[in-house]
Amino acid sequence: MGSPMLKLENIDLAYGEAKVLFDVSLEVQQGEIVALLGSNGAGKSSTLKAISGLERVSSGRIFFDGENLTNRPSSEIVKRGLSHTPEGRRLFPRMSVEENLLLGLRRGTKGVKSKELLDRAFEMFPVLKERRKQYAGLMSGGEQQQCSIARALMSEPRFVLMDEPSLGLAPQIIADVFRVIREIRDSGVTVLLVEQNMVQSLAIADRAYVLERGRVTLSGDAKTLSKDPALQKAYLGA
What we know:
Layout: E1 6-15, E2 18-28, E3 33-37, H1 44-51, E4 59-64, E5 67-68, H2 74-79, E6 82-85, H3 97-102, H4 112-124, H5 126-130, H6 141-153, E7 159-163, H7 171-186, E8 190-195, H8 198-204, E9 207-212, E10 215-221, H9 222-225, H10 229-236
Parallel strand pairs: 3-8, 3-9, 6-7, 7-8
Antiparallel strand pairs: 1-2, 1-4, 4-5, 9-10
């Protein structure tokens, strides 16, 4: 294996006096889907926010493509080819689907290029093409999630951070979302996936890390971890 595309070294993060990440280290190789698993409040979303520059770490270092991006502004991190689909979708409900997608473009992208990227999003998510002029807030949860993922891809990232993409969705829609994540990886985009859906995540991931109370307690090959009784324990918080 060569140098990892993303590498976290001994990350600590606190909200005021409350420390939420303790000495977190992980790495993701180019072309992988890596799952970051754990129960509610384990620190998964905080880890993604640290990577994408939405939260400042108090110690440790974050490398992307060998470059130290620790505590750099989000705008700078996006320019490097890293995109983040946040938990809860965060769409603008009173803007159309198309307008929401166009907000995902890198600054300065326009004309033929923006049309090309829109067409690609509509090809991957046909329902968004049908709804392109509709308010995003009027779509179902599954459709909104597809819009959120498509918006993250509008900046042509090489690496996507996905935070709980299956949260609150019906089983059939969840299957579609996981299929799309696989397609994204197959198109050449590397994925770090935060999920509570352990079974589905391990089924599509190459490797996984388990966070418990802000610390990495398990890591390894996804298929091996899926059979690990310690993972069930960490997951259920027993």
